[in-house]
Amino acid sequence: MVDKPIFEFINRPDHKRGVVGIPINVKSPTLGLYMASGAEYPPGQEMAANQYLHHNYTAPPGAASKLYFSLIFQLPKWGFYMEKPDEWIEVHPTHREYYERTMATKQMLEGIIKSGLKSAAESVADYELIAHDVRKYAEILSYFASKNEHLLRSMFIDQVDVHTGEGISMRSIVPRWPTIISDFMRLSSEDDKDNTPDVIKDRYNVSRAEGVILKTKNDLFKEWRKMFKEAALERYERLKMLMKAREKTIKEYKEWLRPHIGRFKMTRLGAERPGVRSELMGRDEAGLLGVTGLSTYKNVIRLWAWRPVFSSEHRKPAAELKDRGFVVYPYDNWIRENLIINKRTGLSNIYPYLATDKNQCTNNKCRKFFNHELNRCPHCNSVSYVVRKYADELVENQILPLWPKKAKGLDPTQLYYVFQDYEIKRVGFKLPTGELDDVTFYMKNFTVTQNILLVKLLELKCREMELEKYIDQLLGHKTEEDLTISELVKKDFPGLFGKAPKEDTFVEKLKKDWNNLWRPYRKTIKGIRLPKTGLMFVKPGPYERDFSERIKKQYLTESANLHKQVHDWIIGKMGMP
Ligand SMILES: [Zn+2]
Q1: pLDDT at 278 over 50
Q2: Domain boundaries of the chain, sorted by first residue
Q3: Which of 302, 240, 285, 232 is nearest to 88 (CA)?
Q4: Which range among 108-122, 348-362, 492-506 has the greatest average pLDDT?
Q5: For residue 282, what pLDDT is reported?
Q6: What pLDDT sits at residue 42?
Q7: How far does the centroid of ligand 1 lie from the alpha carbon of residue 376, in Å?
Q8: pTM for this one?
Q9: Which of the 8 DSSP states describes residue 311?
Q10: Strand duo 369-371 + 357-361: pairing
Q11: Separation of CA 370 and ligand 1 centre (Å)
Q12: Is the C-alpha dihedral spanning 512, 513, 518, 523 positive or negative?
């Protein structure tokens, strides 16, 4: 569904060849910081293939697919939670009937998407118009916020006073009093200044008659300014509300379009799909099928299933959730720096936006993330913040909260999980004797620590966002940028939003300077690494390190049983002994 490679479990990274992923580390000094144990190589290359499964089954049409659906219903019964990170269907023109049927479905989907996009695009256009007005009013309001008298006075002369007519408007009486406009611009709006014709006459050295006119015009200006500010604020608020409503409509269209676009992107005719096929299983029977030219369709489903591995040790007393509601906090620095935000070795290699800077408010009641460009939290106006990454925002706001809720098969009291990575391939054949359905189950069974599962959950989130981004591109609509505009408006005119109308205070300046001062050092400090001696790994990380004894006995035995369970079940369903 998404044209991005999977962040695979790998034997070792090879950055020159662009091989990035999660290194299997049972023999590595990183054991303890995390664990990823399982099949390291693709089939055919795998030596100790005990955590790897490969079953092929050919049957009359429909029978093989039935096997797939049975598995989907069976896995939850064994306590697994499932997600589908990828799926695609490829149809070959060799089978005319099937090809035409798929083509028709694809065209139908295209039609639905196009008409949906058209309606959505109208909403986007509406939204843009309103957004334009919002910006215009925001600018006007900024004159008030910044007390820009000069601009307001010229606005009054050109757009209000001019309509009072010949002989009355300032523009029309300039021939009689040539300095009237410049005098008016200099007048004070404060109630105790320039409040009588005589005061004006003396202060600006004008005739009393001009003083009378200036006093009247100044009163009118002050009255207009008050009314205009109220009207502009009201209009601004109403436009903002309209903008929100349109935003909601666009969101609804997107919700509605998402599954159609997902299906559309999944269906490829012939060899349409770019070469992002997973390298997980390495071998492909494409050569065989290509030569015989008999295949009618190919459907590849990537499926991830996981559940905690309960230690085989005698039940310990309930684990203590002492680290922020976890036995061990799953989002540790090592995982964050090496497998997430590092652009060479981490998930950011595939999704670079994970490593973009974000500010996080340090006000304990707020702690919200905001645009890195801003120097003040738009949610609570606090000027104290730390520079973090977009990945931190996603993990802390959307992934970590799943644990305490025990959502998606997670459990805060469990540190180890079995992670089954399936690739299920359905292929249709047409033979002179009739049609056949062929299904292949590839499965790799991994035992991982919770922080590795966190990386996989973040990857799923990124893949979801990719589809979102694609729909946004189709619509020409960027919600994030809109967010930035409203954040900017709030930042530019904090005085208009009820709170803290102050300018950059001394403290704020200090804070800003401090942040700038600190930034380069922070990098240097991070750059300091301990020499790679055996000493460095005396006790790295909170996870189990004794592979041959404790890990094998406590976790891998249980994990292997779960692997065997799937193996036996598939074999049984296929009707083999
Ligand atoms: Zn805040």
Answers
A1: no
A2: 8-92+270-573, 118-269
A3: 302
A4: 348-362
A5: 38
A6: 56
A7: 8
A8: 0.71
A9: P
A10: antiparallel
A11: 9
A12: positive
